[in-house]
Amino acid sequence: MPFAAPVFFVAAGAVAAADWMAAEEKRFSEAEEDVDRQASAKVKDLKAKAKAAKAKAAATKAKAKAAREEMAREEAARDAAARARARQAWEAAQARAAAEAKKYQGPAWAEALGIPSGTQLTLELVQRHYRQAVMRTHPDRGGSPAAFHMVQSAWETAKQELA
């Protein structure tokens, strides 16, 4: 912005006025440049601070994400371990139950003849239970033909196994 100098009517004064005006314009121009430099430095400083703040926020966000992922992995590992322990316990219980059932369960034909499980099987014992089962299941005595045939089949299998 040009500076309006006072009008001098004296020649010497006109030169001095022109010098004064040039000096004022120079001083004004330097002041403007100084203000521009200060504003530019302030803007650079603020941009640098904003960039640092963004970087810090991004780092914090990344740390939080990593912490969440680590917690999820740990929880998944704990869940997998708990499932594995539960599965092992269940399988052990199943094995114990099967062993216990096998200990007390006799052959299938023994049940068909009415022999209690866990009984020491001999041919005489099986024959006695066979005769009683035939009396219970014979169709002439009110039994069903299917049950009678099952007893007959059990007796044949028992004779083969115990003979």
UniProtKB/TrEMBL annotation:
Alphabetical UniProt keywords: Coiled coil
Q: Which residues form the J domain?
A: 108-163
What the entry lists under PROSITE patterns is as follows:
DNAJ_2
CDD domains linked: DnaJ
Q: Does the keyword Thylakoid apply?
A: no
Q: Which domain of life is it from?
A: Bacteria
In Swiss-Prot or TrEMBL terms, this protein is called J domain-containing protein
What species does this protein belong to? Cyanobium gracile UHCC 0139
